[in-house]
Write a structure and sequence with these properties.
The protein has ten helices and twelve strands. The strands form two sheets. Strands 1-2-3-4-5-6-7 form a seven-stranded mixed β-sheet. It is elongated and about 70 Å long. The chain has 356 residues and is of the alpha/beta class. α6 (231-242) runs antiparallel to α7, α7 (260-283) crosses α10 and α9 (297-320) crosses α10 (327-344). It has helices spanning 43-48, 109-117, 132-135, 151-159, 223-227, 231-242, 260-283, 287-292, 297-320, 327-344; strands at 70-75, 78-82, 87-92, 97-100, 122-126, 146-150, 170-172, 175-180, 183-188, 200-203, 208-210, 248-250.
Length: 356
């Protein structure tokens, strides 16, 4: 049975999805707008020609030594472990070690890093969410360790059995306080965001918040807004994260620890991206695309989507290169994800919809 040892928090209502019917495709075209050169440069062509901008100093983290990882005490025996691409944390409690996640890129280096700082055994394992790139090495932990996750994580792991991701032995629905020795973690579920089961992991004593695949300190989000399953909720997670009184942020990825300012900066990037996508929807004129592909509606629609995405990207990249790492690498993909979210989640249909 799902367990909770705190009063339940209000659950997020799922966002209603609006579906753009094909019949709306030819409903209307704008009287005026922007027509890009050849409608849009294909993303694949752009990638093949790319020389990426230098990584700004604000995106750089500690140098990874030859052994392949850095283990660093954040404060009060809460440790951060990274290989420069993936991250996790663990706590030394006096009665055993609590580990959060198990990225396969770290693998057995997790056990080596823990052994560097303590001889205590691993007694508790927390899963941030079910994705294999973050817990796919969880099979290295002791079989008798208590494994804690959200109830949806267990359900999702049952759908695709994987011996490298043993099922949790303890699940919760809304919130869960984990007390081991003199260390405490509060686990909170606020609804889907990056994945259907992603949770907030907060260490109140250390004021550390771990929220995986939402904010990427110093960098733009990964491709397609971190491949998130619920873009509106993923965007809202920026504000929800800032509701926690943290000073240190662990995002699960890339080069360094984060701060509240990192969350605020990525939120600014997201607001700018939304504004750029909305502007592109209003300004790109699909009229010539109907003429070019009169009997191929998918070609019309793809050409329009590429054009809107490129239009938004062309505005974003100069503004964010140098502020966030890889602004020129993934902004095109993120602009596409934002455009699709505006279209199907928020109902910003533009010239292909029934709204004026």
């Amino acid at each position: 049975m799902p367990t909770t040892n705190q009063p339940p928090e209000p659950a997020r209502s799922p966002d209603r999805r609006s579906i753009l019917k094909y019949s709306a495709l030819a409903a209307s075209v704008p009287a005026a707008g922007v027509l890009l050169d050849q409608f849009a440069r294909p993303a694949t062509a752009a990638a093949s020609e790319a020389t990426y901008a230098p990584v700004p100093p604000t995106a750089r983290g500690p140098e990874i030594p030859e052994k392949g990882y850095v283990v660093q005490e954040v404060r009060d025996r809460l440790y951060w472990l990274t290989d420069g691409t993936y991250q996790m944390i663990f706590l030394v409690t006096g009665e055993g070690v609590v580990v959060v996640d198990a990225p396969p890129t770290l693998g057995h280096n997790i056990l080596r890093a823990i052994a560097e700082v303590t001889s205590e055994p691993i007694t508790h394992v927390v899963y941030s969410h079910h994705h294999a790139d973050h817990i796919g090495a969880a099979g290295i932990y002791p079989r008798n360790a208590v494994r804690i996750a959200h109830e949806r994580t267990r359900r999702l792991l049952c759908e695709v059995p994987d011996s490298n991701r043993p099922l949790p032995t303890r699940v919760f629905s809304d919130s869960y306080w984990l007390q081991v020795g003199d260390q405490t973690l509060k686990l909170t579920y606020k609804g889907p965001n990056h994945s259907p089961d992603n949770i907030y992991i907060y260490a109140p004593r250390q004021r550390v918040l771990m929220l995986v695949d939402v904010v990427f300190p110093g960098w733009v989000p990964f491709k397609n807004l971190a491949m998130s399953t619920d873009i509106p909720a993923w965007i809202d997670a920026h504000d929800e994260a800032l509701d926690f009184p943290f000073t240190t942020y662990v995002g699960g990825h890339l080069t360094r620890l984060g701060t509240r300012q990192d969350v605020e900066i990525q939120r600014e990037y997201m607001r700018d991206l939304e504004g750029s996508a909305r502007r592109a929807i209003a300004e790109v004129d699909p009229t010539p695309m109907f003429a070019q592909y009169p009997d191929n509606p998918w070609a019309v629609f793809k050409t329009y989507m590429d054009a809107v995405t490129q239009h938004a990207t062309d505005r974003m990249v100069p503004a964010w290169t140098g502020r966030l790492g890889a602004a020129d690498v993934f902004t095109y993909d993120n602009a596409f994800a934002m455009f699709e979210a505006l279209r199907i989640d928020y109902g910003v249909l533009g010239p292909f919809g029934v709204r004026p």
